[in-house]
Amino acid sequence: MRRSEYIGLAERLLEHEANNTTDSAEDTYTVPVADYLDEARWNNEMEAIFKRLPLMLAYTDELREPGSYKTIEAVGVPVLITRGKDGMVHAFLNVCSHRGAAVVTDECGTASRFMCPYHGWTFNDQGALIGVADKHKFGEVDTEAKGLKELACEERGGLIFVVLTPGVPMDIEAHLGGMLDEIESLGIENWHIYKQVELPGANWKVCYDGYLEGYHFATLHTNTIFTFSANNIMAYDSYGPHQRIGFPHHNLGELRTKPQEEWETGEGMSVIRTLFPHVSMAGSDQGGLISQLIPGPTPEQSRTIQTYIYAMQPSTDEERAAMDASVEMTVGAVRDEDYATGFGIQKGMSTGANEEFTFGKNELGLHKFHQWVNFYAEGKPESERPNP
Length: 388
Prior knowledge:
Naphthalene 1,2-dioxygenase Alpha Subunit, Chain A, domain 1, Rieske Iron-sulfur Protein, single chain, alpha+beta, seven-stranded antiparallel β-sheet, 2 domains
């Protein structure tokens, strides 16, 4: 994290701690429960948000070497991501141009070419059709027109973004805006994946809501997150639809006992960065947890890929044990506390007990998130773009 940004967050959080206050909205905000349940609404979210905005689908660490590849399915779209011989990342629909079979069935690996397992058509790592099995029997094929369908793909700050709809361009600098500097300051391109865990979840917005506030720490996370992080205090910043939230640790006040130049960047707080519409990043400039939240096949389902990624991998048994304990604590908190509660919320919504949810002034991140979902899903004009 940039030190100037850290100092600013720390000063704001110290003031909030002293005054028992938090960054907040001017008023409460309501969202109809139907927005979580309605299938037509959900379809609009998938088409207007998840299939047209940049999604973070891979890490530099997964595709470091030319020839490396990864497959992933997001909202029903099968994707193949490669690093070509040109050193650039490329993304394609993982769909053969002959009869539509999945060209690559492995999750990851290294290859300079990919042969469809159905009829043996072969493509290179930049998507071009380079081989038709028994071409003299098949007939004429315009190989230049029969490559894999390419998707817009960009790599920034150790993260790889893809747009799921062919032909839709990507301007990643415009999309990320001021959050791009935040990401690049972390140095994720030099980090290494330690472990990945996939968790099932309820509706994607039910799950995502929990990443955007610390109002629940003391009650839901009594023996996990709340053991080190204070409840219901935050320093909040937004960058278009993306957000950064600083949560103070219980020991934040120790900063008052030493000169500011001795404060260590990141000391006394946790910082959560969210990349709209589906990524939460929790950690420091030494690494942490990145969660990719992907809607499932129905409004009631989602899945989250949790990636524990660090600048330095453990080198001793003691370091490995400590890291494993940290990972297990975080997995347990999300799986057994956040997401278990989310499944309960999903069931509760279907009863009709609530017609709307009210987000408090202290839940500012939820206000902003749902305003941006509404903006895209309802196709609102630029004049109604949410305020920063």
